[in-house]
Amino acid sequence: METLQIPDKEYFSIGEVSQITQVVKHTLRYWESEFKLLRPARKSSGQRRYRKEDLELVFKIKDLLYNKRYTIEGVKKYLLADKRKKQIDLPGTETEHSPDSKILRELKEELKQILKLLKK
């Protein structure tokens, strides 16, 4: 992945992001509508405020679409799986085997049984 050196700033405008990533502004706006993970903050005037994490995500999306030839849907699935993997790897996060998820599964089954009874 060809990530250029990202300047040491807290926020970037869409013009700066376009220049750094070599992705045109209208494409960045389109990607915001397609990829839920790409949601830059906005000033009170409505201008986008991208963070370094947003720029890294733009580089990743660009690489997946243009270099690895993923489709939009493929990139969405990849990013979602990547996000889930990172959440599981973090200490203290919920996994399928955690006590909380067991309780939720049991609760779901109980609610299904109650729903069955109510439908009779």
TrEMBL record:
It holds the Pfam family MerR_1. One of its GO terms (molecular function) is DNA-binding transcription factor activity. The keyword Signal does not apply. Residues 11-64 form the HTH merR-type domain. It comes from the Bacteria. PROSITE patterns: HTH_MERR_2. Keywords: DNA-binding. The keyword Ubl conjugation does not apply. SMART domains: HTH_MERR. This is Putative MerR family transcriptional regulator. It comes from Endomicrobium proavitum. The lineage of its organism: Bacteria, Pseudomonadati, Elusimicrobiota, Endomicrobiia, Endomicrobiales.
